Amino acid sequence: MPSNHLYSVDSQSFDDEIDEIRKKRLQKIMSLAQPVEEPVILNVDDFDDFVENSPIVVIDFWAEWCGPCKMVAPILKDLAKEYSGKVWIGKVDTDSNRELAMKYGATSIPTFWAFKNGKPVGRFVGAQPKAAFVDVFKQLIELDMKKFEEEMAAKEDEKHSH
């Protein structure tokens, strides 16, 4: 007997497929938050998951042609090992991910963004020596997010009261 529908979908296999997609996505998110010993290459598809699921993150916005970016790369690789499980380092190629570069104002590179508990807490531009990164990493680890958010809210209130 012909069906009244143009096509038929087996809802169980569709649900199974959706569940499988969800499971794979969750596994990827969970793997992003695992301690890593080298910078993680990110793009628009996994950037938000990485930032939101890693407690402390420093993102390097860089490009292949950028000399200062190349100078910083081995420092970040060393620090990823030294701070594994404490600070997650991500790298975003600005040439391949212009949307992210624009969103985070990475017009000069390298640009670095720091996140804690999924929230942006700082930004700096330009190649830095290892000691400067170590200082930033220590500050991020010690940063009291509740106090930071209260201070940011107070600054916003002050801006709006003038």
Question: What does this 3D model show about the protein?
Answer:
23% of the residues are buried. The chain has helices spanning 11-32, 47-53, 67-82, 98-103, 130-142, 145-161, and strands spanning 40-42, 56-62, 88-93, 111-116, 119-125. Helix content is 50%, strand content 18%. A five-stranded mixed beta sheet has the order 1-3-2-4-5, with helices on both faces. Strand 2 (56-62), helix 3 and strand 3 form a beta-alpha-beta unit. It has a single domain (35-156), classed as Glutaredoxin, CATH 3.40.30.10. It is of the alpha/beta class and 162 residues long.
Low-pLDDT residue intervals, each spanning 5 or more residues: none
CATH homologous superfamily title: Glutaredoxin
Question: What is the CATH third-level topology name?
Answer: Glutaredoxin
Q: Give the tally of β-strands.
A: 5
Average pLDDT confidence is 86
Q: Name the CATH class.
A: Alpha Beta
Largest sheet entry: 5 strands, mixed
Count of individual domains: 1
What structural category do the secondary elements indicate?
alpha/beta
